[in-house]
Design brief:
By secondary structure, the chain is α+β, with helices and mostly antiparallel strands. It is built from 13 helices and 39 strands. Helix content is 18%, strand content 28%. Helix 4 packs across helix 9 and helix 8 packs parallel to helix 9.
Amino acid sequence: MRLPNGWYISPAGKQIEVGDAPLNFDIDPDGNYAIVTNNGEGDQTVCIVDVKNGVATQSIPVGRSWLGIKFYNGGKNFALSGGNDNRIFLYSFDQGKAALADSIVVGKPWPNEGIWMGGIDIDEAAHLLYVTGKYDSTFYCFDLATKELRKKVQLPGMPYTCLVSKKHPQVYLSLWSSSSVLVFDGGLNTTLGTIAVGPHPNDMAESPDGKRLYVANANENSVSVIDIGSMKVTETIVSSLFPDALPGSTPNSVALSSDGNTLYIANADNNYIAVMDVSSQGGSRTLGFIPSGWYPSCVRINHANGDIIIANAKGNSSFPNPHGPIPGHKVEHMQYIGSLMKGTLELVKHPSPEELRAYSAQIYGNSPYRRDTVANQQEIGRLLSPIKHVFYVLKENRTYDQILGDMPEGNGDSSLTLFGEKVTPNLHALARQFVLLDNFYVDAEVSADGHNWSMAAYATDYVEKTWPTMYGNRGGDFDFGPGNKISSPSSGYIWDNCKAHNVTYRDYGEAVNEPEKVGDPNTASTAGLEGHVCPDYRGFDMDYSDFDREAVWEKEFDAFERDGGLPQFNIVYFPNDHTNGTAKGKGTPRSFAAQNDLAVGKFIDRLSKSKYWKESAVFIVEDDAQSGSDHVDAHRTTAFVISPYTKHRYVDHTMYSTSGLVGTIERILGLPPMTQYDASATPMVNSFTADGDFAQYNYIPAIIDLKEQNLASAYGAKESEEMDFSRPDEINEAVLNDILWRSIKGADAPLPAPRHGAWVMVEDKKKE
């Protein structure tokens, strides 16, 4: 199966659908059942799986949960972290059936208190339950019998999870934000040690003899091996397919065989389990790789029979979502991308050496990343190119069918088009004059990971595992931007890449701290952009027009044309196609989309009539495609490549992705790739030609009334007025999607014909 990001999966084991974004599971002592915590944007549940027979037997709704789940009392009970409910749920368990029995209240639910309960472990002998507080950076210890708080410890960073030692009176805690593991005594009275490991340490596994601790480092393709006696890292195991691979494997779970000689590492972004021989301390070696589903978030060993069990957070496929914002469907039943993929539990029989070799061959075939990929990209970047200036335009949240579905030249479904040619004449004209891309997919699901994929060709495990909680209205802040260290990839962002390689750059509106008052200067939200942002260019603010943004950019551009010094790389943010819903007195969704379209048209008009046109290229893309329907895939979006050196009046059906677009920009500017994704994604070379066509572009004036405002009677007006449009995706996108559809199509518009099935490639290209 080819994923919309261009990678392939070929899961080795039986797949059992368990729910939305399974992040963790535990296996009962007899090896008969697995309890899975599903922590996605949609319905959150605990799923009970009969692993002997390979079937899900029970699904228990949970209002709020996140990560922590653990059997105790010989498998007769289990504890579940309640996330931002700020409590621990205690269940009884008997013959595969669970029932809520009690709970431990840690604090008041969000937003009254910011705690966010996370990883759990239990010391049954001492009757102690340990749980991490993600938001308040606190480690808690409770008496499991009385449910009383025994101890809480303030931590120097944000924790991920904890692990009780089986051989020592101590407990380990991974500090997600601080590249370290803390060791406490059993009662949390004393910190026994702080051990530096790799960035984003998360899951841990202790050897059966208690001598070693294995820690997955998600931001470094590595696992740290800690000698417990000396409390020092004695070995670092590389989990990627190649020892010198760029970041992007995302090891985020580890498990050991019963004898402790074999280590299993779940590489979330490479979709496989690395199998390592760790029998010789300091001499670990790779045995092979086992294919998993999409984004393996947890791996465990069933010690009753040696089976390898894997939780795949995104399941086995992406899907189309023609029943996105559709009238007549309840909002909670919409095909919203945030909860469209269904996670699975994968059961794999322990492979023989021959089977492991075959599995490993599959993994190398599934991965587009090759050992020579980086060298090849750098070589291409050194080639002479007439393009000296790149403009990267970022927009917000639309699908292909929403905008260009009415173009007969491409693979569109006009029944799903909301902002067609009458609303977006410039986007349609640009697609016709230059290149129409009808097979382009974002790597992201929402804006939280979308801005990261767009600017870094990667989203960290923190972003991937926490945005569903916030987007599902279960609490949490939007802390996914470049200004937050925990959200940022160790490989940096594209502006950091420019800075490191002496490529000049300028930023207009992306990753800025927005002042409250219009006219006050903005500032960079991250160090790499300090001194490189246009202070007068306003970022995400739906009360500010894209016309005004374009005018600010044009004023600076005029100065560059007059005085010289135009940067080689320019990021330009036009966010208003996000729209402001149907709040009374605000612009209608159509007028927002139209002003965004006109701003883009005027931008290209001005550039094409400048002295820089003959050496420029413009890349335009949505950060994500969450806010609408698409008949091919919920990740498919609009993208544009505009330059004298792009093919004109051409339809390019090649499958491209966000990372491929970023990689193409890097190649033009002579930059090396940042991650495995921009290094390996298909570059957009098929859209370019060596023969320049220097025809100018003349923008098309708006066809609809740009001052069109919502009336009090507009569908969803009251709901829109209550939404927070101060930052991307602070609102419930599923509700906003419904409002957009009904406000434009009419509350009683006919239902589009249903479409079903797994992700479909437009380009009929088989894996080489």
